[in-house]
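Section 5: illustrative case.
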């Protein structure tokens, strides 16, 4: 709101300094993702696009490594085997989602869901998290989580962590009735671990969605988009109604 009251020149300089500060002070290499920007005192990528025309070109000019590109249209599903695909569900998944695909329960090395056509999905695995699960994983379970990420990397797999909660809830979870009062960690601590994970592991993305129904929809899109998820920021696509 403060930025909207400033001139375009002041707003551009302020936003540019945010990125430069992240690069110099935090020593980050890759252009901050939508999740990273929304978790700090920064406007989202959409606002940068309004100011500069292209957020990713701005990041290149500042010396960041850019891993994604702007998406012009919506993400479409492309069926590859005339309806013959299956979604695999890990045996440890206690509340399996109900998909518009046949499912098969089997032991997965990592993640909760994968696609039978590994080539079509780019060997993609999805880890589904409720908000309390997400908080626990990124705090007390963080070391174990990193080992899972490493296993995915060793198997040339892409891992998407889908969190069944609006992103805004993450910054205020100590106030939510759905989150146990026994959890003592802060939102800042959780999102610090998220940002570190995103910068360290290029095969990992975090995606915050509204509810379980949205989890079903986005997971099916991710598995059937012909690997487009590798080229785009999924949270940005979701926030702009392209996913």
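Designed sequence:
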């Amino acid at each position: 709101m403060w930025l909207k009251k400033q001139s375009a020149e002041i707003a551009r300089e302020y936003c540019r300094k945010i990125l430069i500060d992240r690069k110099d002070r935090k020593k980050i290499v890759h252009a901050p993702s939508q999740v990273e920007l929304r978790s700090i005192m920064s406007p989202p990528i959409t606002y940068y696009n309004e100011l500069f025309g292209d957020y990713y070109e701005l990041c290149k000019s500042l010396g960041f490594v850019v891993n994604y590109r702007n998406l012009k249209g919506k993400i479409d599903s492309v069926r590859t085997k005339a309806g013959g695909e299956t979604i695999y569900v890990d045996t440890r998944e206690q509340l399996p989602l109900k998909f518009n695909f046949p499912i098969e329960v089997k032991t997965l090395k990592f993640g909760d869901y994968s696609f039978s056509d590994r080539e079509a999905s780019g060997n993609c695995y999805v880890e589904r998290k409720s908000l309390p699960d997400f908080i626990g994983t990124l705090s007390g379970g963080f070391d174990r989580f990193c080992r899972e990420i490493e296993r995915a990397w060793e198997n040339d797999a892409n891992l998407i962590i889908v969190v069944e909660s609006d992103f805004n809830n993450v910054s205020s979870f100590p106030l939510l009735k759905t989150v146990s009062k026994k959890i003592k960690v802060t939102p800042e601590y959780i999102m610090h671990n998220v940002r570190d994970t995103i910068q360290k592991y290029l095969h990992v993305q975090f995606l915050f969605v509204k509810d379980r129904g949205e989890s079903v929809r986005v997971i099916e899109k991710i598995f059937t988009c012909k690997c487009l998820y590798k080229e785009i920021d999924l949270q940005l696509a979701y926030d702009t109604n392209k996913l």
